[in-house]
Write a structure and sequence with these properties.
It contains four helices and 28 strands. It is 7% helix and 55% strand. The protein is mainly beta and 401 residues long. A hairpin with a 4-residue loop joins β8 and β9. The radius of gyration is 22 Å and the shape is elongated. It has a seven-stranded parallel β-barrel.
Amino acid sequence: MHILFLTAVVGRLFSVGRAAPNTGGVSCTVTASGGDDGPAFVDAVQSCDSVTIPRETTLSIATRMNMTGLKNKNINLSGTVKFTNNMTYWINNGFPFEFQDQIAFWIVGGQNILISGGGTIDGSGQVWYDAFATNSTLLRPILFTIYQATDVTVKNITMLNSPEWFNFVNEGENIVYDGINISAVSTSTNPAKNTDGWDVYRSDSVSIINSNINNGDDCVSLKPNSTNIIASDLYCNGSHGISVGSLGQYAGVYDIVENFTSTNVQMYNAENGARIKAFAGPGVGSGIVKNVSYSFFTEGNVDNPLIIDQCYETNATECAAYPSNVYIQDVTFSNFKGTSSGAVQSVVASLACSPDDRCSNISVNNISLEPPSSDGSATYSCQNVNITGNAAFLFGDCATT
């Protein structure tokens, strides 16, 4: 039997009943109130073991949602969670994260959390895309953040029109995203910029699998101190690639990315395919990229299908004088096929390392990439690196700077 439960804190109604016998605990259903549904949703998740947002229900979220400190929770999101487009409120009240000056709509943390149900999270991004076109310093909220959490699964969820990054994993462990559909599409001439699919930071054992991403920045980006990460069975369109980095941006900071596997990726209409990027120049940081495997990439109309850039945002003169202090080692690219866009003429792969042995044990195998026919035969470029593998001959002798 269901009863109505009145929350003393926020004065909202949601329905409460007993969870299924095999799960135990209390099950709650949150329905739309006609106003701000954020407080009731937060209160339900804190109070109940299982929370359902029914299909055909759209919760309007006008205030930030803090769902940290949870334990053993099941959120069945079958309907829609839609954030309002009140830019003034969100700019002043989004949860702040110091890393790269971010703010967030919604943070989830704790232990043993499942979010699933086939529903939608909608960031109402269009107003943000239009405003950012004339104000490049605009703070824009991240759609969904996992913060200080272990054993979290997000499964079969659609995410629409985030103002900026879609997913931020910050200090997470054993996190799984499975069957996520991401779409950031602007309806004006202003693009949906910086709409990364995932940014992983200070986290271990994160899997991003079986997902479709249509966005305007990195499909997946590994920020500093990301270890034991998997990004596999992904379809990425319009993105900036599957990126390690950028790393080494901040002086005095040591960044680590170690044990990363990305396989079975389809990449189309993108700036990059598989990419590793690290800063060089004076006054930057240091770190290491180790044990990275990119394999079975199918690419079409991609500017840089395969790239290492160890002089990221650094000109050649400064990079020679101040090589990157982010060392890159034990990296494999294998089974790549497809076409470049011709944005860099005939170049289809570039392994551009800093001087002084900053890249080591870089292997390439079974690479078959072609530029547009108007650009002639494929060119594979490299500098300051010794390449191994059965496709190393494609690169020839690497330049030394």
